[in-house]
Amino acid sequence: MSDDQKPPPGLDEKLSYHTSGGLEVEWLPPLPIKYYTVAHIVQNDKILLGYKKRGFGQGKYNGFGGKVEPNESSLQAAIRELEEEAGIKAPLKHIGVLLFIVNGADKTFHIDIYYAEEFEGTITESDEMKPEWFSLSTNDKDGLPPVPWDKMWDTDHCWIPLLREGKPFRGRADFDKGESGVFIPRRWWYGLLDE
Ligand SMILES: Nc1nc2c([nH]c(=O)n2[C@H]2C[C@H](O)[C@@H](COP(=O)(O)OP(=O)(O)OP(=O)(O)O)O2)c(=O)[nH]1
């Protein structure tokens, strides 16, 4: 197996190589794990994302999520965060894991990634997120804007398309933090879970 095909430290399941980058640098050393969630509504060719108004990742578009609290499961946290941040309830399905590490930080983010094709309730803006629909298709018929990749976490383009296909995946993305506080992707790897 060539170096780029080999899963990174921390991903122990049986995976088929999907994509990678930043191979010229080493993976960052392991750090204690903290659990997070991120959830998306995906309906055919459209995806619901939120513009993050404050906190970590401010100014970026992302799915809805946050920290898993001590007395809840990851799925419970994902459902709670989706309701708090977008005002809706959805039958979320687990599809991916992203290990996210920032150079110089004190923890590894283990991010459980969820999606659902349906939801209940009215999509509502919250203090933290402004929800908006985007098109995953290159020739959208509904007049929706395309997914704003340049305003999202770098490397999300590696796995967002897998949500539409319902393909389980695992990945790792290490980032450096630039002087102006921008996050610069350092090394990343994504694989599909062997079914
Ligand atoms: N799509 C994507 N999401 C990421 C990446 N890195 C990263 O931390 N996230 C997500 C995981 C969490 O949903 C969110 C960080 O959690 P947060 O900062 O919102 O958590 P929080 O404690 O403020 O949230 P909360 O529990 O107070 O609502 O960002 C990434 O590379 N891609």
Automatic annotation (TrEMBL):
The similarity annotation says: Belongs to the Nudix hydrolase family.
The catalysed reaction is:
2-oxo-ATP + H2O = 2-oxo-AMP + diphosphate + H(+); N(6)-methyl-dATP + H2O = N(6)-methyl-dAMP + diphosphate + H(+); N(6)-methyl-ATP + H2O = N(6)-methyl-AMP + diphosphate + H(+); 8-oxo-dATP + H2O = 8-oxo-dAMP + diphosphate + H(+)
Q: Where in the cell is it found?
A: Nucleus
Leader peptide range in chain numbering: none
User: What keywords would UniProt list here?
Assistant: Hydrolase, Magnesium, Metal-binding, Nucleus
Q: What CDD domains does the record point to?
A: NUDIX_MTH1_Nudt1
Function recorded in the entry = Oxidized purine nucleoside triphosphate hydrolase which is a prominent sanitizer of the oxidized nucleotide pool. Catalyzes the hydrolysis of 2-oxo-dATP (2-hydroxy-dATP) into 2-oxo-dAMP. Also has a significant hydrolase activity toward 2-oxo-ATP, 8-oxo-dGTP and 8-oxo-dATP. Through the hydrolysis of oxidized purine nucleoside triphosphates, prevents their incorporation into DNA and the subsequent transversions A:T to C:G and G:C to T:A. Also catalyzes the hydrolysis of methylated purine nucleoside triphosphate preventing their integration into DNA.
Cofactor(s) for this UniProt protein: Mg(2+)
Q: Name one GO molecular function term.
A: 8-oxo-7,8-dihydroguanosine triphosphate pyrophosphatase activity
Quaternary assembly: Monomer.
Which domain of life, per UniProt?
A: Eukaryota
Q: What is its main location?
A: nucleus
| The name this protein goes by in its record | Oxidized purine nucleoside triphosphate hydrolase
Give any Gene Ontology cellular component.
Answer: nucleus
Alphabetical list of InterPro entries matching this protein: 8ODP (IPR003563), NUDIX_hydrolase-like_dom_sf (IPR015797), NUDIX_hydrolase_CS (IPR020084), NUDIX_hydrolase_dom (IPR000086)
EC identifiers of the protein = 3.6.1.56
